[in-house]
């Protein structure tokens, strides 16, 4: 921590190409640290670290307000258009060991709310996360459902969306103890929307007793 009244949380972005992973990271940071644009191939090829400025009015501990700082590690997508699974994992482990020496608070698995989650894709993703984070991955993973605005345009509220969701998605959400957030790509950059999302993430971290997952770089 830079100051005694600061709290820093370390987040890892994971997801497939064009899920809005880098854009979600930018939303949480309140800036445009990560390259994000429409592309027929995977945009991110190496990990990059983004840091927020001090954020006030989000968290209090022991009766005192703390300034929140967010560090986000954006990773290449998986599956990737030009990198193998082993290359993506190797790059993620290297960057985690370099930037998050004190540990990882939460990995954010980014999925699109406007696209169905297929069993094969889900199994592939879970295997990737298990191999990257280890046997306790469920305790340190939350799901971010992007493009929630498109689901709303189709007439789905959060409740009706989950009621209609596939068993594959519901099983995934259950496995991570229902740690999920909906991200409206059009509104979330608004200060109030961002604060709501950050409070939800902090609640996930608090329920995990502020534990941090320490990952050492290994050859892969």
From TrEMBL:
Q: Which UniProt keywords apply?
A: GTP-binding, Nucleotide-binding
Signal sequence region = none
Task: Output the Pfam families linked to this UniProt entry.
Answer: AIG1
Q: Which GO terms describe its molecular function?
A: GTP binding
Q: Which ranges carry the AIG1-type G domain?
A: 6-220
Which family is this sequence assigned to?
Belongs to the TRAFAC class TrmE-Era-EngA-EngB-Septin-like GTPase superfamily. AIG1/Toc34/Toc159-like paraseptin GTPase family. IAN subfamily.
Q: What is this protein called?
A: GTPase IMAP family member GIMD1
Annotated organism of origin: Crypturellus undulatus
